[in-house]
Specification:
The complex is a heterodimer.
Chain A (H helix, E strand, L loop, with lengths): L10 H8 L14 H8 L4 H24 L6 H24 L6 H15 L3 H13 L18 H6 L4 H15 L16 H25 L3 H5 L3 H4 L2 H11 L9 H4 L7 H7 L5 H6 L8 H8 L10 H17 L18 H8 L5
Helix pairs in contact in A: 3-4, 4-5, 4-12, 8-9
Chain B lengths: L3 E6 L7 E7 L2 E7 L5 E5 L13 E3 L2 E3 L6 E3 L5 E3 L8 E2 L1 E4 L2 E5 L1
Antiparallel strand pairs in B: 1-11, 2-3, 3-4, 4-9, 5-6, 6-7, 7-8, 10-11
Chain lengths: 359, 103
């Protein structure tokens, strides 16, 4: 059984480069250029509509929460506000980081900055880490955003339903960066010319958090932290619930997103919070397509993809047994069936990486 | 020494679109701008060398299909991360319905 090293500086990272897994050419479903051009077209309308709904709902829920504070009657409003702050902002960070949510670049950039702050993800660092995630998706030692490492650290993953480790890491990195330092792993994917920006943003954020903490101390109440800071903890559960499905239990070290990513049909509220990233195979295969066109892209290429999971429950029913088996056997993974209409997996590309697939 | 190469017909590229053109072991991207002009850059994104042929042309910018890096294809200027290095650009001319590039 092979032991994995997920560090960006370890032997698996070196091996990925040596074997050509890093920065490889990935499989893409054939889509006629005219159709793909239409799918890639940008528009401000859907994201402006969704952003008005998002901020309107956040103001409403936080306003009622503040008005009812400290009564327990405020709790449901905080829970709703928290999901929008600690989970919807994850998908806004993601889509605006790609620059596809809005047509107008400044709108993407503004939303990206706000969402990065809410998620305590340095906007410069995480732009580059996500770039690497798309270059080397679930390649061990190359992808810094692998959640389900093998064997899975279940306690850490469960704790992150309350944002605990993500928040601790985010705050630690913010303090490190504010002190003028870049973590050695970050330095492997952030160009030197961008590193001063990491430090500048961290210092601004630290000043904001100190002001919020100062206000809380002055008021003798945690209420300011209920609005800024704590929702990263109490509202994180939805983005973790959806995020775990993206790649959980699937293959590592392959260059076909059909083998390492999962598409799941979800209810409209979760799709609003998640901004359609449940179409995850499609997103990885064609990251230029905006979130509001992903259902159309799915319809165009589903003949070439494994059947999507039908719901949260269906996805977790598939994933959970595989995760449990990976506790004992790190090489175990799910290899999903392709429909007869699909181009087959390139076994010759993947046989070494895949080893023995699940039955 | 630079020379003019017959690259394609003007009808080969829709407005606000691009095509790939390979010549002498090099690869280029040729663009048809919204106002009818033609431009040429290196074909590979300066970030991770993905070909721009599947990218999206929006007015005077080309967006890389892999990481959404953006360049002004008239000047080659990198407009959006993760691209930090400009694209090389090449002169073009149109003669007899053909697009020529100077390489």
């Amino acid at each position: 059984m092979a032991k994995r090293d997920y560090s960006m500086l370890g032997p698996d990272a070196r091996r990925a480069v040596e074997t050509g897994l890093a920065a490889a050419e990935w499989y893409h479903t054939d889509v006629p250029r005219k159709e793909m051009k239409a799918l890639m077209q940008r528009s401000d309308g859907p994201a402006i509509r969704d952003t008005i709904i998002l901020f309107g709902a956040m103001i409403l829920f936080a306003g009622v929460g503040i008005a009812l504070w400290p009564s327990w009657w405020s709790a449901p409003f905080w829970l709703a506000y928290g999901v929008l702050f600690g989970s919807a902002m994850d998908s806004r960070w993601h889509e605006c980081g790609h620059g596809t949510a809005f047509k107008t670049r400044h709108y993407n950039d503004w939303m990206y900055q706000i969402a990065s702050f809410c998620m305590i993800r340095n906007p410069v660092t995480w732009r580059w880490s996500h770039t690497r995630h798309h270059t080397d998706t679930i390649i061990v030692g190359r992808d810094p955003e692998i959640v389900f490492m093998r064997p899975p650290e279940l306690a850490r993953i469960f704790a992150n339903f309350f944002g605990i480790f993500d928040t601790i890491n985010g705050v630690r990195r913010m303090l490190l960066n504010a002190a003028g330092k870049i973590h050695p792993e970050e330095a492997t994917w952030i160009p030197e010319t961008e590193q001063p920006k990491v430090i500048r943003v961290a210092r601004i954020w630290l000043a904001v958090y100190l002001a919020v903490i100062g206000l809380a101390l002055w008021m003798g109440s945690i209420l300011p932290l209920m609005v800024i800071g704590l929702p990263r903890l109490y509202g994180a559960w939805h983005h973790v619930l959806t995020g775990l499905m993206q790649h959980g239990g699937l293959a590592e070290n392959v260059i076909d997103h059909r083998l390492n990513s999962r598409t799941v049909y979800l209810n409209p509220i979760s799709r609003f919070i998640y901004w359609n990233m449940n179409y995850h195979v499609e997103h990885h295969m064609f990251p230029m397509v905006p979130y509001h066109r992903l259902p159309d892209l799915h319809a165009a290429i589903k003949h070439d993809l494994p059947a999507p999971n039908r719901s949260f429950l269906d996805a977790y029913r598939e994933m959970w047994p595989a995760i449990k088996r990976q506790l004992l056997n790190e090489d175990y993974f799910l290899k999903r069936e392709l429909p007869p209409t699909a181009k087959p997996y390139r076994e010759d590309f993947h046989v070494e990486a895949l080893g023995q697939p699940a039955e | 020494m630079a020379q003019w190469i017959d690259a394609c017909s003007t009808d080969d590229i829709e407005e606000e679109d691009l095509i790939r053109f390979d010549h002498a072991g090099r690869t280029f991207a040729i663009y048809h701008s919204p106002d009818g002009d033609f431009f040429c850059t290196d074909g590979l994104c300066t970030h991770e060398h993905v070909h721009l042929e599947d990218g999206l042309v929006m007015e005077y910018e080309i967006e890389c299909p892999k990481h959404n890096a953006t360049f002004d294809y008239r000047t080659g200027e990198a407009m959006r991360a993760p691209a930090c290095v400009n694209l090389n650009t090449y002169k073009t001319k149109v003669e007899g319905g053909r697009v020529w590039i100077e390489v």
